[in-house]
Amino acid sequence: MNIGTMIKRLQDIMRQDAGVNGDAQRIEQIVWMLFLKLYDAKESEWEILEDDYRSIIPEKYRWRNWAPDNKDGKAMTGDELSNFIINLFNALKELEINETTPIRGRIVREVFEDLNNYMKDGVLIRQVVNVLNEIDLTDFQTRHAFNEIYETILKDLQSAGKSGEFYTPRAVTDFVVKMVDPKIGESVADFACGTGGFLVSALNHMKESAEDTSSNEQLKKSFYGVEKKSLPYLLCTTNMLLHDINEPNIIRGNSLEKNVRDYEENDKFDIILMNPPYGGTEKKSIQQNFPTELRDSETADLFIVEILYRLKENGKVGIVLPDGFLASVDSTKVAIKKKLMEECKLHTIVRLPGSIFAPYTPIATNLLFFDKTGSTDGIWYYRMDLPKDYKAFSKTKPVELKHFNDVINWWDNRKDIKDEINSDDDNTYWKSKYIPMDEIINNGYNLEYCNYPVKIEKVLNPKDTINTFIDERESLENELKNITTNLNDYLNNKCDEFNYDNTIGRLINQLIDVNMNFPKKMKNSIVQYAIEGKFDLSKTGDSSVIETLQSISEKRKLIDKKRLFDINAINEAEVPFVIPNNWKWVRLSELVSYQNGYAFKSSEMTKTKTGVPVIKSNNLMKLKVELNSKTDYISNPTDKMLNSKIIKGDLLMCLSSQSSNPEPLGKTAIYDMNDYALLNQRVLKLTCLDERMIKFLYYVINSFYFHNGVSRKGGGSAQSNLKLDHVMNMMVPLPPIEEQQRIVNKLDIIIPVLEVEFNEQNDVEE
Which of 87, 98, 460, 740 is the most exposed, fewest CB within 10 Å of its CB? Predict the structure, then answer.
């Protein structure tokens, strides 16, 4: 059974259906069918084992009675099948359940309660059903082999927009479980279980020590989960059934809706494993379920409080939390952290790379481990770095359990580890360090230690860039709404206290930063997407890149060698990303000749705006040439000065800038004025050997990829410089000329929409 092929077949069928839009809907469509097929397979077992077994599903809606296709022309398809599915959903949503209904029966209605059937074409529904029928889930070995396919389906959630919040990378859940080490006989809970990743990892870990049938039966009753959203509830329930938990104790609801002071001993658990939703906010009626000093609108904070009320004595916890919780000194968060460390032993914090949840979110997260065995006397920190050959984790390079090996080896042999690479005479950074409790208290319960000294840069694709922006805005706006509502209530004497310190100002500043950064991130994302060939604008009949390069090669022979740069061969190992087959990687030096600017003396220039303008780095600030109040002019240029002459259509690149304003460094613009100008020595002229590709090169050179790849060493402390040889040796992804034009046309329409004025400083002294 080929995993990739099967999923691709299902996706290809569903893409033809006008009712299905996006990965999340495709996943939901596949899994509700898979659930019914799997449930039917389990019922076949229950019917053998139990003489009085009766299905909760009406007979005609059981998978066995409508889904199989015996190739006799009797299988439903087309409108008949579409209408049948509508009736099936209505029937399962209205199943009668009561207190005596067993869990395995109750979950059917709870699974379908808020689900949707997105497919409209009955013929295509039949095709999907037939592909699923190729799997024999009644066979124990086949069912367990299918777990790998199911895990692949769950991984797809990471790139399925907001649905990525429901899936925690399996390497993370496996590592946390390994460190917490739950045993058979211990109860395991996740109060926001998503797709059930932590529960399944715990099941697999505990299963290794199961010695007999009674241990296995005890094991199957050890897990408890709560999930309030329909899609992850379906995914989790199906996940548990696939792992032979026949009566998965997964509750559909919000565990924060119960007052934490009402929990009794039988509501508590030995092991709690969680990746609670963060960035979300809870309404006031939910916050009322928590003690006043611990009430917070942030969902993740409230889950920490719930854990403290539902953890047994000697119980253990492994939880994923964002950086914001660690660093915040907000009074409520401090109260929560103080309660946590007074009632539990917070012994370890593992700091995770920011890209570990990519591409769903770049938010930096941490793993917190604590036991209810006394109070905290100090915390061990370990900063998990990216593998040496990784710039970031991604969909194609996801985090794996092997990447945690260094943490695992350190776990039982803890010691301080200095970060030798990033430490210098002025700053000492730590990869691992023990922080005593008195230092934490003196630091105001700010738990921000062993941080990453260098921010991991990651350009997301356009869709994920937009979704991240929307999520960040929604999160900040929800927090602001909650605080201003509470402020209004306080002013109108509807509540007794209001204590948010400077939270409103901080949130507004964060919101401004999110808004200001979005256009730049979006431009980087779209241009990167374009130069990787993701727009898919190739057409039959496009010219050959090889022929274009041969033509350019002939032109090179006619140019003064002083204006040419040697072309170095490209090694396969250098290639930074995959491009379409009809594209080719080339050096920039293969496509352009160059001319340095002239070293003008201040005595030769005037600001009277008469004569020929001198183009400097500050004139290239906004990716186009702009004359400003400090532009210098030459009245009577000499022949030597005229060697730096530029005309309309020339490509200009800023090679250096003042340290006080590095903004122009590396920026490239096309000179579009009718009258000629002269270049200052800090600006480089690039002449395309095929003038048709000027605009495409303009976009490539201004891309995040190009800027990130060019070395910026050298030049002294007063200014920054780009090295000419590094610039000319940069690799360029080159499509056919016709496709270049299509890409440029698309970018010319999109990019201006993202141009936002932020009062950049244009007048910088040279």
Answer: 98
